[in-house]
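pasting for ref
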Amino acid sequence: MSQENVEIVRSLYEGFLASQGDAGFEAFVAGLEFGPFDPGIEWDTRAVEAWGLSELSGIHRGVRGGQKFWGEWLSAWEAVEFDYELIDAGDFVVALSDQRMRGRSTSIEVQFGKHAQVWRFRDGLVTHWKMYANQTEALEAAGLSE
């Protein structure tokens, strides 16, 4: 089942990357409602404080909570690009990312840099998602070491 979890995360990332452009982010956020998410999913975004984004920091519950976070986060960006590596960790998938973005109103390119996300699965559904400012911490949280 764990390789299936990796493929689920890969399809979400590729779907996101393909959603660039007019109304793309809005369509991606709306589409979360139909994604592989447990109704009680928790989206832990407290790591955004490391980037000075405390207004978006918190634990958002349910698909609607995730849609609210992603809608607010993506509203500032015209484009979001990233390279990623997915690591199978049983019930967890660790995503190591290197991200860059372009501001919607300024067109300024921003290097977000290396960070990570840990996805926890149960019965083929994502039950918990957490962002990490530090890739080593993410790997440790999933029971792995660099």
